[in-house]
Specification:
Elements lengths: L6 H59 L4 H25 L1
Helix pairs in contact: 1-2
Amino acid sequence: MYIDGNWIPIFAIGVGLIITVTAILSDTISKTRLKIEQIRADALVRAEEVRARNQLELEKLMRQEQGMPSSATTGAVSDTQNSEEYSRQSARVRE
């Protein structure tokens, strides 16, 4: 099959367009995947925060039922919450 010399630039433009569209699509897909992973990580962090908060509340209630004064546990709870907040912030900085 003979290709006329007039078709060569058209083929070159077509190939160039295919390469450009492929590059744009792959960039968009990778950015979208990164956003999805960030959303999942944030959701996991929030879920862990809720679990930790619930656990602390349960421990506080159990101590109150056992007769321990609330003021004795307040310091431990706030220290634990400060430690958790610091670790969460450190984790987000690393991301």
